[in-house]
Specification:
The protein is an all-alpha fold and 323 residues long. It contains twelve helices and two strands, in the order αααββααααααααα. The longest helix is centred in the last third of the chain and has 52 residues. This is Ion transport domain-containing protein.
Length: 323
């Protein structure tokens, strides 16, 4: 009962209160978080978050020189998140004590400044233009590392999955499986990029995990190098370990140790969640099968007339030995 009460107060009641407040007129220039146009804007930003999650680890590892097209795209993406920072100062929020939408600009600003404002700004600052002052390509290792702050945007995806898991209009198992797959793919992508970065910055290319297998790997195409890195990541994550790609120097050994320890937690998390989903699905099916014959028997005993095909009555009755 305590769990049900917590779910009601923490999830259902705020949602019901927010829905009830949608029809309340807010102050001028204040945006409702449930406005359809703002929802579209949030969805668009989520697409950009997925792009950021892929491009910035990839750029850190594989792109020493940033092309002007990618430079332009990244600054456009950053500008959208900068706009969102400004909009957040005009975005009403739900008070979890009164379950009313707060549209006071001062309270909205104070709440945002005391929470995620600093991190949002740090993840939106365009570091490449500053890098151009010292490097003609503007994509040195230091600036590429600062770009990893963009991964802070992933909190939006985490909040989205948390919200969808509690939404009865969506299939819980589908949302949960999508989240687990997304976490796994992101871990594979990041580990592949990091291990390649370690090899690419090592003084002796021949004494690296990829240099031992492909001596002139830097002359290979970007696609070949990326696929090789992802191949290493997957074989390590799944503990397959074919032995064709392995650590060759202390830097790579140290990273492999950390990655394998991380794999222990990630594998336990994935297996635990998948087992929980399977067990819950099996329990629901078993309970349904056990309850259905008792329900039909109660209908027969009380001579309740329902519009159910006769063959279904006969089949259930025969299987359960009714007379």
């Amino acid at each position: 009962m305590d769990n049900i009460s917590n779910i009601f107060h923490n999830d259902l009641l705020p949602s019901l209160g927010a829905r009830a407040n949608q029809s309340i007129k807010l102050r001028k220039f204040i945006i409702s978080p449930y406005d359809s146009r703002y929802r579209i804007w949030e969805t668009f930003l989520l697409v950009l978050v997925v792009y950021s999650a892929w491009i910035y680890p990839f750029e850190l590892a594989f792109l020493r020189h940033l092309s002007w097209k990618l430079f332009l795209v990244e600054n456009i993406v950053n500008s959208f998140f900068a706009i969102d920072i400004v909009l957040t100062f005009f975005l009403a929020y739900l008070d979890h004590k009164s379950y009313l939408l707060v549209d006071n600009p001062k309270r909205i600003a104070a709440r945002y400044l005391s929470s995620w404002f600093i991190l949002d700004v740090c993840s939106t600052i365009p570091y490449q233009p500053f890098g151009l002052l010292f490097n003609k390509h503007g994509n040195g290792l230091a600036y590429r590392t600062l770009n990893m702050l963009r991964l802070w945007r992933l909190r939006r995806l985490s909040a989205l999955f948390a919200r969808l898991e509690k939404d009865i209009r969506w299939n819980y198992y589908g949302i949960r499986c999508t989240k687990l797959i997304s976490v796994t793919l992101f871990a594979i992508h990041c580990s592949g990029c990091f291990i390649y970065l370690i090899a690419d910055t090592y003084p002796d290319p021949s004494r690296t995990w990829i240099g031992a297998a492909i001596p002139n790997y830097r002359s290979e195409s970007l696609w070949v190098r990326y696929v090789t890195a992802i191949y290493w990541s997957i074989t390590t994550l799944t503990t397959t370990g074919y032995g064709d790609l392995h650590a060759e120097n202390p830097r790579e050994m140290s990273f492999c140790i950390c990655f394998m320890l991380f794999n222990l937690g990630l594998t336990a998390y994935l297996i635990g969640n998948m087992t929980n989903l399977v067990v819950q699905g099996s329990c629901r099916t078993r309970n349904f099968v056990r309850t259905l014959p008792n329900t039909f028997q109660a209908l027969f005993c009380h001579t309740v007339i329902v519009d159910i095909p006769a063959w279904l009555y006969i089949r259930i009755g025969i299987r359960n030995g009714w007379k």
